[in-house]
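Chapter review: from sequence to fold.
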Amino acid sequence: MVQGENGSGKTNLLRTLVGFTPPADGAVHWNGRQIKQLDDEYRRMLLYCGHHLGLKEGLSATENLVFGSTLADAPVNSDDVYDALHQVGLQGKEQQPLRTLSQGQRRRVNLARLLLQKRALWVLDEPLTALDAKASQWVIEAIDRHLDKGGMVVLTTHQDLALAHPMQLIRVGT
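The token string follows.
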């Protein structure tokens, strides 16, 4: 877990870990190899959920998840998408255009990718932002299930997380 004040560099650190921003010095490694050498191989191992949701306002929740999964080379069927949307509390909203959903509901659409794109490494930037208590609890439980299966999670948050697994804390400062 990465913690720090607003503007301390948490998001920049995560963007560097996923390969969006080159490191100012040194290199990021995955399994002993630099991620810039691994490129697509590394990207297939991770799922990044950042501040910007990367969703299309004119598409439905279902269309966004199908489109995003296809782009991530992890095609899904409609049953899996509906199941994921129901798990995140969006039953009845599957076909609504994203622009008609609240910010918290949009965040849930984005987080439904955790269920659809099977990745070893989750990099989550403030995943609880705009979520109510029930949705926040779902995210915490999803993280715990991922860790139970041997997955890894790097996340930033300003909220207390009651995870069943111990987390390494990285504190960044300005």
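Two observations follow directly from the output. The beta strands are 2-3, 29-30, 33-34, 46-49, 121-125, 152-156, 170-171. The first strand starts at residue 2 and ends at 3.
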